[in-house]
Fold this sequence. Notes:
The complex is a heterodimer. By secondary structure, chain A is mostly helical. Chain A has 9 helices and no strands. In chain A, helix 6 (101-115) packs antiparallel against helix 7 and helix 7 packs antiparallel against helix 9. Chain B is α+β, with helices and mostly antiparallel strands. Chain B has a 6-stranded antiparallel barrel. In chain B, helix 1 (2-27) runs antiparallel to helix 4 (129-168), helix 5 packs across helix 7 (195-208) and helix 7 packs antiparallel against helix 8 (212-228). The chains are: A mainly alpha, B alpha+beta.
Amino acid sequence: MIKDILQSLSIIAIPLIIAVFVIYAARKKVPVYESFVVGAKGGFDVAIKIIPYLVAMLVAIGIFRASGAMSIFVGALSPLAHLIGMPPEALPMAILRPLSGSGSLGLMTDIMKRYGPDSFIGVLVSTMYGSSETTFYVIAVYFGAVNIYRTRHAVAAGLIADAVGMLGALLICRILFGS
Amino acid sequence: MLNYVWLGLIVIGVLAAAGSDIYDASTNRYRNGEQFELQYDSTSATAAVVSYSKQYYDRFYGVHIEAKDTLSFPATITRNSMQIKLGDTTPELWQTVAKTADDSKEITATVVKRSGNNILILLPVTNLVRTKAVLDAVISYSTMAVEIAIGLIGVMAFWLGMMKLAEDSGLIRIIARMMRPIMTRIFPEIPPDHPAIGAMIMNIAANMLGLSNAATPFGLRAMEELNSLNPQKGTATNAMVTFLAINTAGLTLIPATAIAVRAAIGSKDPTIILLTSFFGAGLATIAGIAAAKILQRLKVYRFDKTSPENPGVAEK
């Protein structure tokens, strides 16, 4: 029941938001077309502005992934993963999630195909995917749009959030689905 | 810190690639210069099906693959060379051989000797596998970055237009006022009536509903507003970092992508992860806000209004 409501909510949300925004603006006597166009002009500038930040970030992540360095990290962290009861198959997911959205999506698909989407590992990796965002992409885009290069504690805070998200996913999956 | 992470990704990547290539060369992992024996059945003058046993492959490369006992592939054979078409069952090493020779669908091998149904071939020399992969990644990821950015223009323009409508009509201000008690606590530096608050709420709400392509434009609008309060352009403010921490935690009621993939693979209950990922992302959000609030007081991260404003200065 709740699932159905949530799912239909995500489908009707966009048309609803558009309708409410436009109708409310018209009622308040805002020149809707003019106002929309003035706002939309910013789209191009923002997209162009983030390019250097996105290139810097994605190339570094690309080099890291293509080099096979990931397996070194998985090897180094696997004793730790074993200690907290994380299945070794799910460990690459935890490392890749903050780095690459498309990469972790591919990995999640791969793991679920191999172990089945309803297996413990399948549920765990899809929960991990849903428990976080691609931190480095968000940092590149959001700071890039306003030309911020001194990011202070943003990376640290983002990675702490990711780590807690991954551990939280593991915890709740173990409580609910056991293994 | 981003400087170090960036440096680390590149240096670790390059070193790992070089190390892995040196190791492969020293153990001759791809058996360069060694003859591989295949069985073949002609289907026409030039076409054939070639096969080899799993045991032979394992012994040849010194590996243990998971496969059927006999692996066979369609091939075209001329006098001196042979094109082997690859498929899903192709072992990983052969995939790499093909990929490194710039062709992911077939391997072009040299025919050394034929006798009866047996044929001896030399596979193309394969080396510097990881280094080549890193070079490819540099090109393909930088192209991808531009494609992502350009691809954002349309959606970005649309939602920024919508956002402007909502700002001009005062809708954002109404929404912001409803959420004021929470927002003033999370973002004490931002005046409660500032447009940044409204934009941040719109971003968080869009994320919650799983509308990620609306969330980004709202979020970037919020960053612009937050930057208008920034006394030192180029440096992140406390409010920006807290806002980013909330975004990187990715709290959502509907993890749409993960559910869609689960359904596509044939899960009996694709939405089973609604609750679990809300729990995970909820914890991540709390941890992110807490980390941002605690770390902003540390000396290395403290917001320093007096430091110079040029891009050459290294961030801590």
